[in-house]
Amino acid sequence: MAPRFTLCFQITVVFLCCTLCSSDISCRNEAGEPVDWFIIYKLPRNRIKEVGSGVEYMYLDSSVGSWQMSEFVINSSKGAIGNTLNQLYMGKTYQSNSSVYALYNDAPPVLDYMKEYGHTKGVLLFDRSQGFWLSHSIPHFPSFPERGYLYPSSGKVNGQTALCVTYRYDQFLHVAKQLFYLYPRFYNCSVPAAFSADLPQLTQLCEGSKPQLTSDRRVEQLFSIRGEKFVSFVKSEHFVDDIYTGWVSQVLHADLLVESWQRHNVLPSNCSLPKHTMNIKRIQLPTSVRFQSYHDHSKWCVAREYEDRVTCLGDLNREKAQMWRGGGLVCSDNPIIYKAFRQLVDYYTAC
């Protein structure tokens, strides 16, 4: 059966398959080479081997095909995330007027946590040609550009995920509209004047203004620089519902297994709607090591049935308070991504 990764509207997209060049702004793999996309899964402390340091991580992109334990650690500037962010830090891009960057986190480094912003975390860096959108689940990360690459000690305790996708410039016009709904806390950003006419939403967010929205949620198809389709679902604080149950599972026509931080007022598995949402309770790594979901601060979901073949990574936990928060998911029907995440599900609670 073909994967049912469909939306309630159609978009005609014309794109060119681009070649990733070593000098272009892009997601970078473990060797520092440009890649279309990558995902990292940082493991919880004491969950790998007998004494886990909390900085080991697994790496995935289309070329490796399955989870690989990284030879690097996440608190080093080496490895995929370090190589990617060093285009901002080491290249001094933040001092240039030829590119746009934005760092956002509802729990930023140094500054106080503020709930009025969307529960979302990430980095944008792009120029008139291309760039990357890195979305992740790590509080207090990344550091301010002038400080260079730093990983917070608090980020060692729980599991975390990060998705990086390389996009052409025109796709960031759509990404900016998605961020408008998320209302992220931009704690460091720059939208030079030459970009402001194209990116009014990003300019407004960078200036600290709260958006005036015409709806409570938005969905957008995005295409990576090599033509890989990703679908961004974003909800504002005005869409008061669980994003997984009340929206995404119904649009994707798939029962979802959800991994999120299960610490406070967790929403139970839900089978009240046509498509169901069930909480993952335990993860099993390719090494056969298991850990409980409450050790995992990442937020992702996979279709329960293999023929649906959908995977989403994002921002929100399945808990009551986050029904009133902005946040989103980026979804893919890539079989490599689906297989990698589906095989991690060791136990979930059915309705």
TrEMBL record:
The keyword Hydrolase is annotated on this UniProt entry: yes
Coiled coil: none
Signal peptide residues on this chain, from the entry's feature table: 1-23
Top-level taxon of the source organism: Eukaryota
Entry keyword set: Hydrolase, Signal
E.C. number: 3.1.22.1
GO terms of biological process kind: apoptotic DNA fragmentation
Signal in keyword set: yes
InterPro entries, sorted: DNase_II
Catalysis performed (reactions): Endonucleolytic cleavage to nucleoside 3'-phosphates and 3'-phosphooligonucleotide end-products
Enzyme class: hydrolase
Single annotated GO MF: deoxyribonuclease II activity
Family affiliation: Belongs to the DNase II family.
Descriptive protein name: deoxyribonuclease II
High-level lineage: Eukaryota, Metazoa, Chordata, Craniata, Vertebrata
